[in-house]
Amino acid sequence: MKGLIYIASIVTLVQSARVRIIQGTIASDHEFPYQVSLQWNFNNGSRPKHFCSGSILNPNWILTAAHCEGGFTRDGWIEVVAGVKNIAIEDSAEQRRNVSRFVQHERYNPMTLQNDIAVLRLSKALHLNDRIKTITLATGDSVIVDDTISKFAGWGSISETWDDVFPDELRKIDIALRSLEDCQKVRPTVDATREICAGGYRNVSGCTADSGGPLTVQIDDSTVQIGVFSYGEKPCKARLPIMFTRVAYYNEWIQRKIEKKIGKLLRWSV
């Protein structure tokens, strides 16, 4: 069922996009320096279109959701844009890169969205600075308690109807983590080992085109990514919790893929 919720919105993606920030506020400049916009270049002279988010693992690799593979038009390709807040304005400080490899989890299931995680290899390394930084990933040793307030940001739709409305500027929300018991009341199939459940009340949620974005918490003095946005409800009325792939569970998988530098070589790679 959760796959169907997402697939209903994916059909209209590039005419519309993937899961959004509801009741959020505009992010401050450089507030999320680790977050990138995944955009589809149609190869027809039009401006590339945002469809997912991701986070910077290192200058060469991006973490995102497996369902953000793209492939919307035959002759197009994915571009990753770092150091950007307003995606409608070309900023001299932004860095745009093509994607040479898209590495989905081997057991990713597009119908259930199980193992919804992937890493992207960039065609050229990013230059890190005060606007473009890497993110720290949660490990099995990271202690995260229920009701912790986390942060989430994206360029996803801000509409609570079937008709998507996409903002130009990055928007953010503070969102509480839900306990397994609480989450299973409305999402009985949740796998707490591999997923994180958050939000679904106080009209705060994510939606279409927020997919792949990082869910973060503060641990000591560090911002730590604990989740990758996977799926939610549609329309995005913030009645149900939204679901994130649990980063700590997949941390070793991420490290293996980056070290081996393997994955599908994209036909649009440069």
Explain this structure.
The chain is mostly beta strands and 270 residues long. It folds into 2 domains: 91 residues, Beta Barrel (Thrombin, subunit H), CATH 2.40.10.10; 113 residues, Beta Barrel (Thrombin, subunit H). Helices cover 10% and strands 31% of the residues. The strands form 2 sheets. Strands 1, 8, 9, 10, 11, 12, 13 and 14 form an 8-stranded mixed sheet that branches. Strands 2-3-4-7-6-5 form a 6-stranded antiparallel barrel. The longest helix has 14 residues. It is globular, with a radius of gyration of 17 Å. The N terminus and C terminus are likely disordered.
- Largest sheet at a glance? 8 strands, mixed
CATH-level-4 superfamily name of the largest domain: Trypsin-like serine proteases
Helix and strand composition category: mainly beta
Please provide the count of β strands. Answer: 15
- Listing every helix as H and every strand as E from the N terminus to the C terminus, the arrangement reads HEEEEEEEEEEHEEEEHE
CATH fold type of the largest domain = Thrombin, subunit H
Distance between termini?
38 Å
Count of helical regions: 3
Beta fraction: 25-35%
How many structural domains?
2
Instruction: Note poorly predicted spans.
Output: 1-20, 264-270
Radius of gyration: 17 Å
Please write the CATH class name of the largest domain.
Answer: Mainly Beta
Q: Percentage of helical residues? A: 10-25%
Task: State mean pLDDT (0 to 100 scale).
Answer: 83
In the CATH hierarchy, the architecture of the largest domain is Beta Barrel
**Overall shape:** globular
Family: Belongs to the peptidase S1 family. CLIP subfamily.
Keywords: Disulfide bond
Pfam families: Trypsin
GO biological process, one term: proteolysis
